[in-house]
Design a protein that fits this description.
4 strands, 2 helices, alpha+beta
């Protein structure tokens, strides 16, 4: 979802009262996602937000290289939440 559209949805969510807010979030949790690029130690990766309430957290995915049984292998590092 482009940033402009994300802001539109975020503003729409924030204008609702608590009951409407929860109902609306339940509906869009399954249909609205946001992904954006980020750099982690110089490596291009991406973050996804699976809900548009403006919390700014989500799940990040970073390609990395790890050593397994003495061999270097490709892996993916991921984490989630605002306090990563």
């Amino acid at each position: 979802m482009p940033k402009k559209e994300y802001v539109k949805w975020k503003n729409r969510v924030e204008r609702k009262n608590l009951k409407e807010h929860r109902k609306f979030i339940d509906k869009i949790n399954n249909i609205q996602f946001q992904a954006y690029k980020l750099k982690w130690h110089g490596i291009t990766s991406f973050n996804t937000n699976d809900w548009v309430t403006g919390a700014g957290n989500g799940t990040y995915y970073v390609p990395v290289t790890k050593t397994r049984h003495g061999k270097k292998v490709k892996a993916i590092r991921f984490g989630y939440g605002a306090g990563n």
